[in-house]
From TrEMBL:
Native source species: Clostridium drakei
GO CC, one annotated term: plasma membrane
Domain GGDEF: 145-281
BP-aspect Gene Ontology terms: cell adhesion involved in single-species biofilm formation; negative regulation of bacterial-type flagellum-dependent cell motility
Stated name of the protein: GGDEF domain-containing protein
Superkingdom, natural source: Bacteria
Gene Ontology MF terms in the entry: diguanylate cyclase activity
Pfam families per record: CBS, GGDEF
Length: 285
């Protein structure tokens, strides 16, 4: 389950006054294993000091000379994926503070986030798991964006796994993940959904995604897999556009999108004339 800020924050911080000497901060860093010092000017939070700032800090300086203003605030209910977006968009910050009203609950670092996100990464392919798609679909829908969902399902993978062995099967899954990562459009989201199924969420129309899917089929068909094992894929596509600018039942729409795209890829497996099946669910808008 995807955690929120309150569940993963670090409470091991110390409040310091901007006029405090850095020597005392350095001592607390080494003696008390505190890695985040929150700088206050009276009652106002005005800066932060981390190990990064302490490395080059002269012990005779004061907090105000060393602290940085490169930080952000979030509330305790902020989802982990949103925290990732904040860090990705703000490359110069190393700390995000978690505040509820005026109460500082704790802080998050990139390391804390990476440890949490590691739980949501598929170890074989290095791709995010399915909740990554759920979160970003929810975000796009609530922002009123058009979106399309592409489901990629490998053909006869169970047979391949039995005939050539699990080691080759794993290599194929890693190779397919590599192909998808190298070909995914900008502003799109990729995950290993389950087994031999992958999903790509895009903020684009179905027609554009159909062209993209055709390129994916070609890329997979032309790739040299281990031991020249023949690998192909079937793709299901569905899209959604809220013409009435109504959010509606977002969770229900997400379930329908995933279900329809998955069923479309199953239909594509049974077709002999095409590897791509498109289904539209705008009727539920």
């Amino acid at each position: 389950m995807m955690q929120k800020a309150l569940n993963i924050l670090d409470k091991n911080f110390m409040k310091v006054n901007i006029l405090n000497g850095i020597r005392s901060v350095i001592n607390a860093f080494y003696e008390k294993n505190i890695y985040c010092f929150v700088a206050y000017d009276e009652e106002e939070l005005v800066g932060v000091i981390t190990q990064k700032e302490l490395i080059s800090a002269h012990p005779n300086r004061i907090v105000a000379d060393v602290m940085t203003d490169k930080y952000k605030f979030i509330d305790p209910s902020t989802p982990t994926w949103k925290i990732k977006e904040i860090f990705d968009f703000n490359k110069d910050i190393s700390v995000i503070f978690v505040k509820e009203n005026d109460d500082l609950k704790g802080f998050l670092t990139r390391t804390t986030l990476d440890i949490e996100l590691a739980k949501h990464i598929d170890l074989l392919t290095g791709l995010y798991k399915s909740d990554y798609i759920f979160y970003n679909t929810y975000k796009l829908l609530n922002n009123g964006n058009e979106l399309s969902l592409i489901f990629i399902d490998l053909n006869n993978f169970g047979t391949i796994d039995k005939k050539y062995g699990h080691i080759n099967g794993d290599l194929i899954l890693k190779n397919v993940a590599k192909i998808l990562k190298e070909n995914i459009p900008q502003d799109s989201y990729l995950c290993r959904y389950a087994g031999d199924e992958f999903a790509i969420l895009t903020p684009f129309c179905i027609d554009r995604c159909t062209l993209f899917a055709e390129n994916l089929i070609d890329a997979i068909n032309s790739y040299k897999f281990p031991n020249n094992i023949p690998v192909s894929a079937s793709i299901g596509i569905t899209g959604y556009k809220n013409h009435n600018n109504k959010k509606g039942d977002t969770l229900s729409i997400i379930d329908k999108l995933i279900n329809i795209a998955s069923l479309a890829s199953t239909k594509a497996k049974k077709r002999i004339d095409t590897s791509i099946v498109v289904e539209n669910i705008n009727a539920i808008a």
